[in-house]
Amino acid sequence: MNTHNLMLIDPHIHMTSRTTDDYERMQKAGIVAIIEPAFWLGQPRTEAGSFKDYFSSLVGWERFRASQFGIKHYCTIGLNSKEANNEALAEQVMELLPLFVCKEGVVGVGEIGYDDQTPTEDKYFRAQLELAKEVNMPVQVHTPHRDKKAGTIKSMEVCLEHGIAPDMVVIDHNNEETVKDVLDRGFWAAFTIYPNSKMGNERMVEIVKQYGSERIIVNSSADWGVSDPLSVPKTASLMLERGISIEDVRKVCYQNALDSFGKSGQMHESDWLKGTQVDQREKFSDNSVLRGGQTPVVGEVKATDSLDSNIVR
């Protein structure tokens, strides 16, 4: 894998579900910054306190854990569509969101939107759009896996109905069926390179060849499922190998993520250009990233570009 030493951003990855080893591999592959959207953990939560602790970890422990490997960590905060269907709990979570959306490192409201496209999901999607508008933050929209095209178009129409400008909204999990509608309406179009289900990166190469690099973003959405935290560097490498210009690759794997979520005022290129010094002797709430007498890394860490295959299917 060769990314020509490009700096890369993965603007949708759920590091809560990943190991510390992944941070190390991502940094070596050129990832300088990530965005972790609040999401469904796989088992429905039953208490608002579970959400509060989870949101706290996104702005606390995960920021620290990423920093220990030279990666800048940002997040989006929101009530995911699946758990929005528990209306009693959703009401309590909505009361928590204003306490977190303006914290340091939060770059948007997300990931929000539709799962089964129920009336309850619609209610809390709209309520969170109003919150985003109130605090002038970008919105990260999860599009449904079932009836995707209709759900994607509905998501954009609802955003416009609430007066959210398209350039403040990243429509995520696109595919060949939805990309034209999203770009034609002026929204950011994000694509998740996720093995065996959403998209492989060979399809992503063809999309960039057809539609160019304007407002297109690549992410991994790596989580607790079978997924790949190196999907962004592997896709960057494959694009270069198959003749896409380095400037276009830089836009879809770095610059467009920075331009869209940078509208929050919380994410600046200077955050990581200042240097990649780490000190793994540091602790967060008296906890280190190290285990069992490991030797801490202290000093500058550098990407190596030393990974093998760049194909994700």
From TrEMBL:
Tell me the lineage of the source organism: Bacteria, Pseudomonadati, Bacteroidota, Cytophagia, Cytophagales
Protein name as it appears in the record: TatD DNase family protein
Alphabetized, the UniProt keywords read: Hydrolase, Metal-binding
Q: Name one GO molecular function term.
A: hydrolase activity, acting on ester bonds
The family annotation for this protein states:
Belongs to the metallo-dependent hydrolases superfamily.
Q: Which InterPro entries match?
A: Metal_Hydrolase, TatD-like, UCP005295
